[in-house]
Design a protein that fits this description.
- This protein is about 45% helix and about 20% strand.
- Strands 2-1-5-4-3 form a 5-stranded antiparallel β-sheet, sandwiched between helices.
- Helix 5 packs antiparallel against helix 6, helix 5 packs across helix 7 and helix 7 packs across helix 9.
- It is elongated.
Amino acid sequence: MIKTIFVVHRDGVPLLRVSIDAKREDELEEFLELFGGVSSAINTLIKELGHKELRAVSVEEGSLVYSSNGPILFIIHTTKDDDETFAKLLIKQIEHEFIESYEQFFSEEEFFVHRDRFVPFEKNIRDIYTQLNTLNKQYPELLEFIPSFVHLSQLYEILNLGLDLIKGYPDETIKLVRQIDKHFKENDNQQIAIIKTLGRYSGHIIAKQTFKGEIVIDQRDVYDLLSEISIVKYDKKEEVFDVTLCPICRNRSAENPMCHFFSGFIEGALDNPSISVKEISCRATGDKSCKFKLIRT
């Protein structure tokens, strides 16, 4: 579970401490002791790994999930059994809103000295946590697939689109996907990731609902799911799904393969962390068909 959320200046000065676990609130002394040693270690890691990397380090009573943006560290203290995916998504939501609220003060010398200006943001943190925690309880599979850069307002939009895709399978799937594609820019990496996320989420849920009695969903099962919405062949040797008449990119042209929904759908249905999917040919770029290869790591 999430214990405490910290906002700390990179020099080790604590700006905010929000205890989520009301039964066992971290004392100020513990807080200062924790960051007296850990913040310098995290600073070293950030310099080596990149300023905006999401990372986690183990501590005595769980782990610290942290992110950095400019002079600010955002840190979540979790217990060992906590869902790291949830913590990473939570910390990026807090980071986005904090930077939006206080970036104007970063140019001031020793802006962090006036810590009382940050006190109202505690309510923001609690609100963000409450909203994400509610979503996590109701739709835990969704948060497993959501990229950390997605903002909370957009997360609700993705949830509703995902639920529409699941409810509309198979009859309305292609119509919905083509409508969704129109809202996203072709070469925007974040938008592409969102479309693939919608594919992964809907593919995962649809596969679970369709093959309830199966412990492992394999390529044949995915072939059956795809065959409900398109004409598909599967090359077992090459591990390639060939969508011969792809309805997603029909009558469209693009510089790069654009059927990101199908890539995500296959990944989500297989639900195997060691398998990713890459579109290796696309009708929109002039190829004869859209092909999706399984990449094993």
